[in-house]
Specification:
Elements (H helix, E strand, L loop, with lengths): L3 E8 L2 E7 L9 H9 L7 E7 L7 E7 L9 H15 L3 E6 L2 E7 L5 E4 L25 E2 L7 E2 L2 E4 L3 E6 L9 H9 L9 E9 L2 E8 L3 E3 L3 H13 L6 E6 L2 E7 L5 E5 L2 E8 L6 E3 L6
Parallel strand pairs: 2-3, 4-5, 11-12, 13-15
Antiparallel strand pairs: 1-2, 1-18, 3-4, 5-6, 6-7, 7-17, 8-9, 10-11, 12-13, 13-14, 15-16, 16-17, 18-19
Bound molecules: 2,6-diaminopimelic acid.
Length: 292
């Protein structure tokens, strides 16, 4: 198959490859994802593959792959990168995308920031999903560390299209070994589809500071859907209001849980370089006119 164009971008340091798979029938394979992630120049957290629309009224279908080759149902930071790339190409500002999780609208603002409507959060244990019934998902029974002095415990759980667990902490989020606990919690049997694991602290009025261990990608500098999940969980547990500023390691994002139940994520996107790649194998080359 012919090579497909891609852009290496990031959303607050969340490493994103936007792949242009329009007008072709093949998909980016897990093999290609793993190969691209193994190369330091193209190492990424998610690939956002733009395909032709499947549903009337939508502009494009976006397929999302994690760096381990698994698929994700949502990626807020990646969607902003997709919007920036398509806005630059088309001159348009508003878009309607389809993903496996549903239809979502996004808009580029005059200041260059981008808002993505991430849809409605889901709180039911079957919807997240959890392996067993929990009536109240604002805090579920789950802990890690010594049984009588757990390091992390009682997370809020929520689906933003993808599964999230938010562990509330009092100390600095950097004082927890998320690289050690992340993989254990991501793969805990209570999460049959694994989960994105976030530690979150309230660091100001309507402000949260978070770090995320992403399902299928590991530690990342930012995770947009986790920012949304943390904001919603904070409002549900009355830690904040519904308009929240989220400080991720890569920088700030803003999240509004609107009155119509939709969660809107706003933040920047940044282009790094462009190239072309083989969606079957991940072999790639940088465009010669592209910046270093
Ligand atoms: N970085 C993404 C989330 C990727 C989620 C993925 N790790 C999964 O659910 O498997 C974001 O900005 O929302």
């Amino acid at each position: 198959m012919a090579r497909a164009p891609f852009a290496k971008m990031n959303g607050l340091g969340n490493e994103i490859i936007v792949a242009d798979m329009r007008s072709r029938a093949d998909r980016v394979t897990a093999t290609a994802a793993v190969a691209l992630n193994a190369d330091p120049a193209t190492k990424f957290d998610q690939i956002m593959a733009i395909h032709d629309a499947r549903t009337p009224g939508t502009d494009w279908f976006v397929d999302i792959l994690n760096s381990d080759g698994s698929s994700a149902q949502a990626c807020g930071n990646g969607m902003r990168c997709v919007v920036q790339a398509l806005a630059a190409e088309t001159g348009r500002k508003m878009f309607t995308f389809e993903t496996v999780a549903g239809i979502l609208n996004a808009e580029e603002h005059a200041d260059g920031t981008i808002s993505v409507d991430m849809g409605r959060p889901k709180f039911g244990w079957r919807e997240i999903p959890l392996a067993e019934e929990f009536r109240d998902t604002r805090a579920i029974e789950l802990q890690i560390g010594p049984i009588d002095a757990p390091v992390l415990h009682s997370p809020s759980v929520v689906s933003m299209g993808n599964p999230h667990a938010i562990f509330w902490v009092d100390r600095d989020v950097w004082s927890y070994e998320l690289d050690r606990f992340g993989p254990l919690l991501e793969n805990h049997p209570v999460f049959p589809e694994r989960a994105n694991i976030t530690i979150a602290g309230v660091t100001g009025a309507d402000q949260l500071t978070i770090r995320t261990w992403e399902r299928g990608a590991g530690l990342t500098k930012a995770c947009g859907s986790a920012a949304c999940a943390a904001a919603v969980a904070a409002a549900r547990t009355r830690r904040t209001g519904r308009q929240v500023s989220i400080i991720a390691p890569g920088g700030p994002l803003s999240v509004e849980w609107r009155g119509d139940d939709h969660v809107v994520l706003t933040g920047p996107a940044e282009w790094e370089f462009s190239g072309s790649f083989d969606p079957a194998t991940g072999t790639w080359a940088r465009d010669t006119e592209s910046a270093a």
